[in-house]
Design brief:
Elements (H helix, E strand, L loop, with lengths): L11 H17 L2 E6 L4 E6 H11 L18 H21 L15 E3 L2 E3 L4 E3 L2 E7 L4 E6 L19 E4 L3 E11 L2 E12 L4 E5 L4 E6 L10 E5 L5 E5 L5 E6 L6 E10 L3 E2 L5 E5 L9 E7 L5 E6 L4 E9 L6 E7 L4 E6 L9 E9 L5 E3 L3 E2 L3 E6 L2 E6 L8 E8 L2 E2 L10 E4 L7 E10 L4 E3 L3 E4 L12 E5 L6 E5 L12 E9 L6 E7 L3 E4 L9 E9 L11 E2 L3 E2 L6 E3 L9 E9 L5 E8 L3 E2 L10 E10 L7 E2 L3 E4 L3 E3 L3 E2 L13 E3 L1 E9 L5 E5 L10 E2 L2 E2 L3 E11 L4 E10 L2
Parallel strand pairs: 3-10, 5-10, 19-33, 51-58
Antiparallel strand pairs: 1-2, 4-6, 6-8, 7-9, 9-10, 11-12, 12-15, 13-14, 13-16, 16-17, 16-18, 19-20, 20-23, 21-22, 21-24, 24-25, 24-26, 27-28, 28-31, 29-30, 29-32, 32-33, 32-34, 35-36, 36-39, 37-38, 37-40, 40-41, 42-43, 43-46, 44-45, 44-47, 47-48, 47-49, 50-52, 53-54, 53-57, 55-56, 57-58
Length: about 725
Amino acid sequence: MMIFPARMSSIADSMVSSLMELVLLLLSMYQIKIVCEKQRFMFTILRSACNSFRSKFVSKTTFCKDTFFGEKEIGNHKSMKSSLVLFFFLVSLAVLGQDWCDPAQRPKDQVIGQGGFTVQGSTTGCLLYDVKVEASVAGSSIQYIYDYKGGDPTKAPNAPIPSTSHRYTKLGKYTILQLVSTGGTGAIACRVVEAVTAPNYKVQVCSGRKVVVTIADDSTTKGYESFMVNFGGSVFIPVSKANSPYVISYAYPATSNVATISVTGIAPGNIPLTCKKDTIVTLNSANATGVSIRKVTTRPDGTVDVLVKGSAGIKADIQIDEGATGTFKNTGQSATTNDTTTVTIRAINAAQSAYCFRLSTSDVCDNTTTTSSVVCATSLDVVAQNQQNVLTWKEYPHAASFQNYRVNLNGTPSPVVTNRTTTTQTDRNVTCGNQYCYQITVTLAGGVESVSQLRCVQAISSDVPSKITNVVASVLEEEQKVEVRITNPPASGASPSRFKTIFLRADNGSNNYQEVGVVNNQLTFIDPTANPNAQSYCYKVQYENSCGNRSEPSDPVCSIHLYSKTSSTVDWTVDSPFLFPIGYYALEILNEQGVLVDQVRLGGNSSFNPDTYNPDQQQFRYRILAYPQGSSGLISYSNPYVFVRNALVFIPDAFSPNQDTVNDFFAMQGQFVNTSRLIVYNRWGEVLFESDDAIKKGWDGRLNGQPAPEGSYVYRIEVSDLLGKNFVKIGTFLLAR
């Protein structure tokens, strides 16, 4: 551990009064962070650590007392005083944030001696860098901090260790601080070492089998004084750091095709290091003649993509001629690879101005400079007109290389145009509302192309669809909804691939038509809100083509509503479900199970009396079918309607039971009666007679085998008809003999 001089205790009393207030303040805080501007070192003094210190060295009865440093202190109080002096001293160092490697920053009231040690080998080494130190002064308790960043070397985060070797795993400079006790005092020594890696560099392959090596001026080269480039075999060429960038070139003999290149650094003291990175390159014997523009493509925003066929080691600068005047200037963009490369020329708008491009090629090693053939950008304009799209472009400016124009429609090419002065084309094969995308390609000599931007337009038309002339309204049997069906689209202005049909409805015979449905690409509409059993509905239909042009409403068609006006007839509405007159009606007759039993042709009537068909049937199920004039094959169905006759009951108001076979029984007569029950009462409500068949088992006018007195009697007849409907008849009748 560090040895401090005994005279430190003599200044303790003078320090206590001022430092005690500081300590008490520190002890009351949870955390204090002090940043030393020079070292940018942060200390954290935790309240818990201070409490631990107080609990260990200071009793509750003596802390902050006047006698704390008095003459009577004994035992651990002396130890406590020495420790507290040390604590005050270290706290003051932490507050000041000294760099102990700098003697000017060490505490002025302490005597700190000069240690000493050496680093074996170079103070600069390749990662992983193993350092071994050797003390050059005599002393005890020698320890080292291998990454000292300032502050009290005996306090965290510093952690001195006795080891004399250390491995550095990260790049950078490191300060090694030595702590040693010598001659009754503490001593310090510091040295700086640096861990480096292989220098970064890049190799450019030039024509004529030349290469250029550029060594980076970055963190990987800071620790070196110079470099050594090995171009393969025994070819070593030194590179100085006198001037940046650090560049050197070398030309290989004609027999060389592949080379392995590496760069190593020379550490301070002219010590060569071995860390390196090998780069294997294929040498290039090419020249600039193979460099050319293969395609120029105008983008939608007016910028241009230039496709360059390059050659390794040949720098191809892209030059631009604005306005096709023949005057070129550099764009600041280039290509040097051996493959085709796309370079985007920005900050221009080829849709508004003419631009031509060429390559100015120069070897990276400055061997040659040439220019390529000129390729100009092409721009296309497309305007949608009534039922046609018109394409226009500018005449290609260089006649010598021109071969043809070719327009692509949605990716499909059209026939080529070989006349350079032709600059327009019209596409009349368009459908209103559909999108069409066009692109023009100019083919030049040698298979070079100039391609325009892709232009898309939506075809338009001012044609209004003609009025719908063929519609039918009918009631669907299962759904019990009204279906409105357009049997033929408009004769003109239709767009079969994309359209809308609009359905308007008027209720209860009114002329107030409101939109109730819009369907896409369908000619049929099922009205979800209509109740065909309640009324007839009338509809008008409109057709909207893909351009949004809408026909005028059609004439109305109306669903057939079947109902009863009277108790003895079935009736139906006569508004036509077609856009032409009705030819005739037919009546479907179905049994109680819904099975068709007959169909009666009714002509143009709008009412039917079931008695004329079957007077003995209580319930009928009917449906009307309407057929238009002509032979169109259309049919319109009405809603189904159930017609029910009430059971018929005849009850006499008198009878004469005198055995003359005329009115000898009081009995009921009826039609559509299933069961009946007769009860006869006297005027006091006493039951005189009961029968379970009021038709066949009437009262014979006798009581207990004797003729009943003449007079008025009361009857109650309970009836159930053939459909299960129950009802009761009550009244009086006269018995007369």
